[in-house]
């Protein structure tokens, strides 16, 4: 058996392999199940001991050399493949880097933070409650009896009745949280309640889901003068003006008596609204003294405790302050709109450093 000749015949195709496929063919021809070297290794058992003792070490040496030659050639082919790839896929390091993308704070979130910052400075706590509400907390405890005509003012989203026949609903105002707060906390109370509310309405200034914030103060000897002072302080801080004119117009809400709509002085100038100047008026919220029946529903004696409440649409005052023309755009998830009207993450509202950007 000419081992030297066999070595030349097996290593030649390995060293000359021009591709991974050709190298694999050479490996199979030498070391595969039916490869030439494999067949010779199998034949060792048929040799006499003297011949086997002479041939076996040579075959093992040849197997090791062929394996090493295959690994060497495989590394050479991989290196050549990488060099060819780099030559055709050159990277232009002079190109500018992609701009860093940062998220934006939605105007609604920003305005909620601005409002709560103002009222926190006035000593108010922030309260929250469920979006899915029952009839008692949304209507009855707020002085809406079952057949009260004022219920027709609310286009309510009702759920199907449960097994007990009770119909849950999506809350039509955050006033329901005021009831829950008074049920579970002793007076006096000073809270603001931001949150989502739901009514079946959709146009340029209304959406089926919108954001509202309401405030409540319950204490002894509270009167309308306190309400006016709180609202004046809020409007001046929120709109960032030194003085704001306010006008209270009589109105009706079942849960307050007396009730009022609040207008603030402004000027309309070529589509722009300037708060705190001019002779025009702009309605921004509703308010009033808490109705005695509401206090009684919450276990409070109206002869001892009085209070006032107010509510406003967060989306609406965000539109007024930041010049956003269409309420529906708030909820269309348009990144272009959010980049234009949104706020940087570090634009944290603070009375000392300025509420808005």
From TrEMBL:
Query: EC number(s) for this protein?
Result: 6.1.1.20
Aminoacyl-transfer RNA synthetases class-II family profile domain: from which residue to which, for each copy? 109-345
Gene3D superfamilies noted in UniProt: Bira Bifunctional Protein, Domain 2
List this protein's GO terms for biological process: phenylalanyl-tRNA aminoacylation
Any single GO molecular-function term of the entry would be: phenylalanine-tRNA ligase activity
Q: Look up the coiled coil feature and give its residue ranges.
A: 59-90
Q: Does the keyword Nucleotide-binding apply?
A: yes
The top EC class is ligase
Question: Which Pfam families does this UniProt record tie to the protein?
Answer: Phe_tRNA-synt_N, tRNA-synt_2d
The question of whether Zinc-finger is a record keyword is answered with: no
Where along this sequence does the record place binding of Mg(2+)? 257
Q: What is its main location?
A: cytoplasm
What's its catalytic activity? tRNA(Phe) + L-phenylalanine + ATP = L-phenylalanyl-tRNA(Phe) + AMP + diphosphate + H(+)
Q: How is the cofactor bound?
A: Binds 2 magnesium ions per tetramer.
Q: Which NCBIfam families match?
A: pheS
**Sorted alphabetically, which PANTHER family does this protein's record hold?**
PHENYLALANINE--TRNA LIGASE, MITOCHONDRIAL, PHENYLALANYL-TRNA SYNTHETASE
* Record note on quaternary structure: Tetramer of two alpha and two beta subunits.
Entry's family note: Belongs to the class-II aminoacyl-tRNA synthetase family. Phe-tRNA synthetase alpha subunit type 1 subfamily.
Q: What is this protein called?
A: Phenylalanine--tRNA ligase alpha subunit
The organism of origin for this protein: Minwuia thermotolerans
């Amino acid at each position: 058996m000419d081992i030297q000749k066999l070595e030349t015949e097996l290593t030649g195709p390995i060293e000359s392999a021009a591709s991974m496929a050709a190298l694999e063919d050479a490996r199979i021809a030498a070391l595969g199940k039916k490869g030439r070297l494999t067949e010779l290794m199998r034949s060792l058992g048929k040799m006499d001991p003297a011949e086997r003792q002479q041939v076996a070490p040579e075959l093992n040496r040849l197997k090791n050399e062929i394996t090493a030659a295959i690994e060497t050639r495989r590394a050479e082919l991989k290196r050549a493949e990488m060099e060819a790839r780099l030559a055709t896929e050159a990277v232009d390091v002079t190109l500018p880097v992609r701009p860093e993308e940062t998220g934006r704070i939605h105007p609604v979130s920003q305005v909620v933070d601005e409002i709560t910052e103002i009222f926190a400075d006035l000593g108010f706590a922030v309260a929250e409650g469920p979006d899915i509400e029952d009839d008692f907390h949304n209507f009855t405890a707020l002085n809406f009896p079952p057949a009260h005509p004022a219920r027709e003012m609310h286009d309510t989203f009702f759920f199907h009745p449960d097994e007990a026949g009770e119909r849950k609903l999506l809350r039509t105002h955050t006033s329901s949280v005021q009831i829950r707060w008074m049920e579970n906390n002793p007076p006096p109370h000073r809270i603001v309640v931001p949150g989502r509310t739901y009514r079946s309405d959709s146009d340029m200034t209304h959406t089926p889901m919108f954001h509202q914030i309401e405030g409540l103060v319950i204490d002894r000897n509270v009167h309308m003068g306190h309400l006016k002072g709180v609202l004046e302080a809020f409007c001046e801080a929120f709109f960032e003006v030194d003085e704001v004119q306010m006008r209270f117009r009589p109105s009706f809400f079942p849960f307050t008596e007396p009730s009022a709509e609040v207008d603030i002085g402004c000027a309309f100038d070529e589509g722009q609204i300037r708060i705190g100047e001019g002779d025009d008026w702009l309605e921004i919220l509703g308010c009033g003294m808490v109705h005695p029946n509401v206090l009684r529903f919450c276990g409070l004696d109206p002869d001892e405790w009085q209070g006032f409440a107010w509510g406003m649409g967060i989306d609406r005052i965000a539109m007024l302050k930041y010049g956003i023309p269409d309420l529906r755009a708030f909820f269309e998830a348009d990144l272009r709109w959010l980049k234009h009207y949104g706020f940087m993450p570090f634009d944290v509202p603070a009375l000392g450093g300025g509420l808005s950007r």
